[in-house]
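Lab meeting, action items carried over

1. Structure of the two-component assembly. Owner: GW. Status: complete.
Input record:
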Amino acid sequence: MSQRKSMMDGTIVRNAVKEAFLKLDPRVMIRNPIMFVVEVGFIITLYLCFDPHAFGGEVPVWFNLIVALILLITILFANFAEALAEGRGKAQADSLKKSKTDITANKWTGTGIKQVPSTELRKGDIVIVSQGEMIPGDGEVIEGLASVDESAITGESAPVIKEAGGDFSSVTGGTRVISDSIRVRITSDPGESFLDKMIALVEGAKRQKTPNEIALNTVLMSLTIIFLIVVVTLPFFGNYLNVEIEVPVLIALLVCLIPTTIGGLLSAIGIAGMDRVTQFNVLAMSGKAVEAAGDINTIILDKTGTITYGNRMASEFIPVGKETVGSVAEWAAVSSMKDETPEGRSVLELMKKQGLSYEESIAEGGEFIEFKAETRMSGIDLKDGRKVRKGAVDAVKRWVEAQGGVIPSDLSPKGDAVAKQGGTPLAVAVDNRIYGVIYLKDTVKPGMKERFEQMRRMGIKTIMCTGDNPLTAATIAFEAGVDDFIAESKPEDKIAVIRKEQAEGKLVAMTGDGTNDAPALAQADVGIAMNSGTVAAKEAANMVDLDSDPSKIIEVVSIGKQLLMTRGALTTFSIANDIAKYFAIIPAMFMLAIPQMDALNVMRLGSPMSAILSALIFNALIIPLLIPLAMKGVAYKPMSSSHLLRQNLLIYGLGGVVVPFIGIKLIDLLVHLWV
Amino acid sequence: MINFLAIIVPVLIVILLARPTGLYVAKAFKYERTGLDKVFGPVERLIYKAGGIRQDNQNWKQYAGSLVLTNAVMIGLVYLIFRIQAYLPLNPSHVANMEPTLAFNTAISFMANTNLQHYSGESGLSYLSQMIAIVFMMFTAPATSLAIAIAFIRGLTGRPLGNFFVDLIRSITRILLPIAFVAAFVFIAVGVPQTLEPSVVAKTVEGAEQIIARGPVGSFLSIKELGNNGGGFFGVNSAHPFENPDNISNMLQMILMMLVTTALPFTYGKMAGNAKQGRILFVSMLMMFIVTLGISLTSEYAGNPVLNALGIDHHQGSMEGKEVRFGVAQSSLYSVVTTASETGAVNTMHDTLTPIGGLITIGNMMLNTVFGGIGAGFMNVLMYAIIGVFLSGLMVGRTPEFLGKKIEGKEMKLIAVTMLIQPLLILAPTAIALAVYPETISNPGFHGLTQALYEFTSSAANNGSGFEGLGDNTTFWNISTGIVMYLGRFFSMVTLLAVAGSLLAKKTVPETTGTFRTDTGLFGAVFLGSVIIVGALTFFPAVVLGPIAEYLTLKP
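Predicted assembly:
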C-alpha cells in the first residue's frame, strides 16, 4: 500500500475511540456474546447505583459505581481494539476509493468512439485508453502496448508494460496509462471490479468468521456458560451457609472468570491478520484462505522467476584444445561487448569477478550481430574483418567447419558435461578457431536455500516445477534445496500433483500467473496469482500478490500460522489468568462470614473490596496491554511444532498463571490506599 | 511397614496388569479373526442367532441409537421387576415391592453404572431382584460403556465404528464374565458367602435376637468391582465383613476396580497404532492418581485437628468411620480407588473422611479423568485430550489435528456442549437441593453442603458412592439424582460418539514436523493442564464452600 498507516496513527485512534462508544449498542454487542455478558453486568451494577438495595444488598453505592465504571471501561477497551483494527483497513479503503473517481471512458462502438461514464461500462465493452488517461475498468489489452502506472493499487511507482496477448495483458481499473495507447476489453461489471473487491476486503465489510475462529468461539462460549452456571449457583450455596454474597461481587467474579481477554481481542486478531497480509501487498479474498495458508503441507513453485532468476548467467570459462582460460574469456567478452542480453552482460560481470581483463579497443567500430533463431549465434564482426561468435555448441561447430576449421576433440565432451550439470554451454569462436565454452548457469536467487530450509522446519514440502530436462531440473533442485521437482512439466502436471497431494490429505499452495495456470490455481487450497498475470489466473486464485513476487507465499504461510497462534496463545493466557483471579475474589467474597478464608488470600491483598476491584481492574487493563500483540501477532520463527508449543506454553500458559498474580498484587497496593 | 506394603502392592499389581489386559481387550474387539474366536465364537454365534443380530457395521447414529434404546428397554424391565418383586419367586425374606420413585432411581442407577443406592440391599431387594435385575445390569451396564468406548476409539483411529450388539456381547463373554467368574471363586474362598438360604437368626450372648443377612454375595461382589458398579449387596457395602472379610478380599476388590479402566489407554494405544500415546495417557492419569492418593493419606494420617487438640492419641490417624481391620492406609487407598475408577464401592464412610480426604474423593469424581469408570471415563479423558490438542494446535499455528484428523467447528461444538453438561448436572441441582430441601441434609454448614454436592457429583460422574447422612430416599432425591445419572451417563456418550463419527468421515492429514505430536511428554502435560484448568476452575468455588471451608474452620 502506498499509504502505510502506523498502528497508532492519530486519526485512526480518534475514530476508534468514537467507534468504541458507538459499538456499545446492545444490538452490536450481541455479536460478541462474551462482551455482551459484561455489558449486561454493567447495566445491572449501574442500576444498583441508583437502587442499591434492589437485591437486598448492603454494598455502598460508590462500590457499585466503581464496578460499573470498570465494566464499562472493559467493554470500551474491547470495542476499541476491534475498532482500531477495522480503522486501519478503512483508512486504506479510503485512499483506494479516491482512485475510484468517475472516469470518462472512450468506448468503441464499432464505428467510432463515444464518451461514456465508466459506471456505464459492461463486461465485453471495448474502450480505448491513451497516454495520460485512467483505465476505466478491469480488462484485457486486446491491441497495442503501453506502460501503465499501477501505484494506486500496488504502491509500486515504477510503471509496468502491458501488451496484448500473453501473460501481461490484464489491466486494472483506476490505473493510469503513461505512454502509448491501448485497446481494452472490459472484463467486469460495475461494482465487481478488482478495486471494488479490494475496497470491500480491506474495509472488512465482507469479513466472515473463519472455520478456526468459529471452533474457538464455541469453546469460549462454552466456558462462558460454565462460569455463568458457577456464578448463578454460588448464592444458593452461600445462602445455605448464611453467607451473604453481594450481586456486584458476583458480577465481578463472573466478568473476571469468563474469557474477556480473548473475547475482547478475538475479532481484532482476525482483522489484523488479514490486514497484515494486505500490508504485505497480498490481497486475500477471504480470511479462510489466510488461515488455510497456515496449514499448508506442500508448496508448488515454478522454477523460473521464483527460485531462479530465470536468465542464465555465465559462471565459468572452459577452454578447449590448447587454448587458455584467458583467451576464451577475452573472446567471450569481445563477442558480448555490445550484447545487451542478460547472458551477454553476465559474461562481462564474470570477467570482472575473476579479475580478468581484455583489450576493449578491439571491438571498437565493430558491427554487432544479433542473436537469431535460425543461426542460434550472436557476436561481432570486427573492423579488421575477423568475425567473433558465441552460441549453441552445434551451431558454432557447423559455422567453424564451414570455414574449414578443425574442431578440438574435447569440445563435445566438455559441452555435454556442462549440460549434464544443468547448465547451458555456449561455444566461443573466432573465424575458424574454437576457443572454448562459456558455462551458462541458471542461478538460484540468494536466500532461497535458507527459505526452503525454514519451510522444511515448518513441515512444508516444496515441489519445483520446470520445463527443463530432468538432469537440469535435478541440479537446480539440489542447489536450491527443494524437496522434490517435476521436470519437463506441462500445466496439467501441476493439477495432477496438486490432486495427488490432496488425495493424501495435504493442503497445497501454488503460485502462478499464466492463463494455463488458472485450473491449478483453482484446484490448490491456496492459490496466489501474480498481479501482473492474466485475469483468468487472478480470478481462479484466492490471493493476488500485488508485487508479483512468487516467493512471498512463504510470508503468507507465516502470517496464517501467526493468526492461529495468536488466537491460541491469548486463549490460553486468558484461561490461565482465572487461577489468580479466583485467589483474589473467592477469599474476598467469603472473608467477612468465614474469617479463616484468609488462608486462601495468598496474594495478601489489602481488603476484600480492594481485592475484587484489583482483579477487575487487571481484567480490564490487560485488554489494551495486549492490543499490540493482537495486532502484530505472536512472534513466529519457523521451528518444529514441539519447540514452538513448549515456548508458547511457557510464555502464555505459565505466564498466564503468573502475570495476574503479580499484576493484581501491584494494583492492590495502589487501590488499597483508598479501600 | 505393613501399611506401606498394603498400599504399594495393589498399586504395583494394577500397573503391571494394565498393559497385558489392555492388549487383550484390543484383541477381544478385533473384528478380524483371532484365536479368541475359537474359544468364544460358538457361544457368541448362538447368542447372535437367538437375538437375530446381524453383525454389520453401524454408523454413529445407529450405534448410539441401539445403545440408548437397548438400555432404555433394560431400565423398563428392571423397573418392572422391582415394582412386583414381592409376587415373584426367590424372595425368602419377604421383601416388599419397591416404591415407584425409588424403583425409578434404582433402575437408572444400575443401568447408568452408577449404583447409587437409596435403599439398603438386604431389606430392599429380593434375591431375585439382586440376581436377575441387579446382577444383570451390573454386567450390561459396564459392557455398554466398554462397547461405546471401543467404538469411539475405532472412530478416532479411522475404523468403522462396529456393531453395538456385537461389542456388547463380546464385552460380556470375553472380558467381564470370565474374569468375574474366576474372581468370584477367590472371594468365596476367603469367606464371602454364596447362598440362596434366607437370613440367619442368631441369639447373642445377652440373649437378644439378631438377624444376620446373607445371600449370593460372592458372584455379586466380583462383577460389582470389576464392572465399576459399586452397588453393595449389603447397605454398608464393602465395609460389611461378608462383603469384604479381610485384607486379601480388600486388595482383590481394588485390583478389580482398576483392572479394565487402567487397561484402556493401552487398548487405545494398540488400536491407534501408537503405543506411546496410550502410555503417556496412562502415566498422566497415574500421576494424578498418585498425587490424590498422597494428599488423601497425608490428611487421614494427620487425623482430626479438633480431636488431636484434645490430646487424644492419634498415631493411627483419623479412624472415625473406618473399619479397624483396614485401618487408615487401606481405607484411604480404597476411597481414592473407588472414586478414581468411578466404582462407588466403599469400605469406609466417606462422610467421616477428613475434609481434605473428602475433597479428594469428590475431586476425583468432578474431574472424572483419573482413569474414570469403565469406558466412560476413558472417553472423557480423550475429550479433555482433544480440548488440549485444540488449544495447542492453534498455538503451533495449524488447524488442530488429533490422530491426523482436523478438529473443526462441528467437533468443537459437540465437545463444548459435553463440557457444559458436567457442571450443569452437578451445580444446578445442588443449588436447588440446598435452597429447597435443606431439611433432608443431616448436617448444617459446610459439611452439609458437601453432602449435597457429593450426592450429585457421584450421580453425574456415575460413581454411586454416597457421602451418607442424606435423607435421600425421598421423591426429590430419587427423581433428581435419577435424571442426573441418566444424563450424566448417556448425554456425553451420544455427543462424543458423534464426534467420532464426524472425525471418521474426514481425510487423514499426514504428519509433518509442523504437526503437534500427541505421543510426547508435552502432550501429557497439555492433557493434564486442560483437565486441571477446565475441571478445577469449574468446581473451585463449590469445593471452597464445602470441604475447604470445613478444613479451614477445623484448623485450631
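2. GW to write a short summary for the group page. Key points so far: The first strand of chain A starts at residue 104 and ends at 108. Confidence is low (pLDDT under 50) at residues 1-5 of chain A.
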